[in-house]
Write a structure and sequence with these properties.
Strand order of the largest sheet: 5-1-2-6-7-8-9-10-11
Radius of gyration: 20 Å
Low-confidence stretches: none
Strand content: 15-25%
CATH class of the largest domain: Alpha Beta
Number of helices: 8
Number of domains: 2
CATH architecture of the largest domain: Alpha-Beta Barrel
Length: about 280
């Protein structure tokens, strides 16, 4: 007799990328959940922040009729959709009508189709750690497939008490938006105390794969952030990857931020600073 599952947790999924080479090591399937507790100035996926309020503003701009309104709800026809993003461009809610409610079984079924070609699965967002019940159950199922499990997180939700999640999680990738707490608060609406605590804890238990810092000229104190973050990281484990990411004005809400993509020379200089502070594994993108 087949053992009956106790749960089949549902989540709102923004998108699933079957094959990704940028969401952790190797070729991975990446699942992006809807909903975030940060509201970063430079967010390049602002449509993942909030939930659709079914205002209907997006329906009329769809050129192929993939959206309609019925009983007060926006409905999305995935088969008709061309992913032109016109619906997202007019959304004032920082959301998207192209969101699916999916349960663990449905997502695992999709992963099984890519399993022969991937090394693992990464769950991102939005902010995936807001969906702890889902992560615990989903990662448990993924481990049964002998795939690695990675969490891409802003670090705002403390992980040290999430025992079941940690048991099924191989590695975390944490974004440290700013090392200075006041700047982090201004940028995201939340201070960075939990983020730094998570970085220290995950490094201590050997489950911190990468720290990420976005370099945003004219908005953040980039040299201060790289200097102090790299010193923290080098003191924890010099082999943990430190990724410095160029700000790129693609997909951002232009009314929220005035910045530009930094020159490669500047990125190299920041990389040298991190290296001088003891970081051994630095990536510039």
């Amino acid at each position: 007799m087949t053992e009956k599952k106790e749960k089949n947790t549902e989540v709102l999924v923004n998108k699933i990328i079957a094959f990704s080479s940028v969401d952790g090591p190797g070729n991975r399937t990446a699942i992006f959940l809807q909903g975030c507790n940060f509201d970063c100035y430079y967010c390049h996926n602002p449509e993942t922040i909030n939930l659709c309020n079914h205002c209907g503003h997006c329906v009329s701009v769809c050129p192929v009729g993939a959206l309609d309104m019925s009983d007060g709800f926006v409905n999305w026809n995935e088969e008709l959709c061309r992913s032109c993003d016109k619906c997202i461009e007019v959304c004032e809610q920082s959301s998207s009508p192209r969101i699916k409610r999916m349960n663990v079984d449905q997502i695992v079924k999709k992963v099984k189709k890519t399993r022969p070609f991937i090394s693992g699965v990464t769950v991102s967002g939005g902010e995936a750690s807001l969906q702890t019940d889902f992560l615990e159950e989903f990662f448990g199922e993924i481990k049964k497939l002998e795939l690695s499990t990675f969490l891409d997180t802003n670090g705002s939700i403390l992980l040290k008490d999430k025992k079941k999640l940690l048991n099924n999680l191989d590695m975390a990738m944490i974004d440290l938006k700013s090392f200075r707490s006041s700047e982090h608060m201004r940028l995201t609406g939340i201070d960075n105390s939990n983020v730094i605590e998570n970085i220290k804890f995950m490094a201590r238990i050997g489950k911190l794969y990468e720290i990420r810092t976005v370099i945003v000229p004219g908005v953040l104190d980039n040299e201060f952030n790289v200097d102090h973050t790299s010193k923290l990281l080098a003191g924890l484990d010099q082999k943990i990857r430190y990724k410095l990411i160029k700000y790129r004005p693609v997909g951002v809400r232009s009314e929220r931020i005035e910045s530009y993509s930094p020159e490669q020379e500047y990125m190299e200089r920041l990389g040298s600073l991190a290296r001088a502070n003891g970081c051994k594994n630095i990536v510039l993108v």
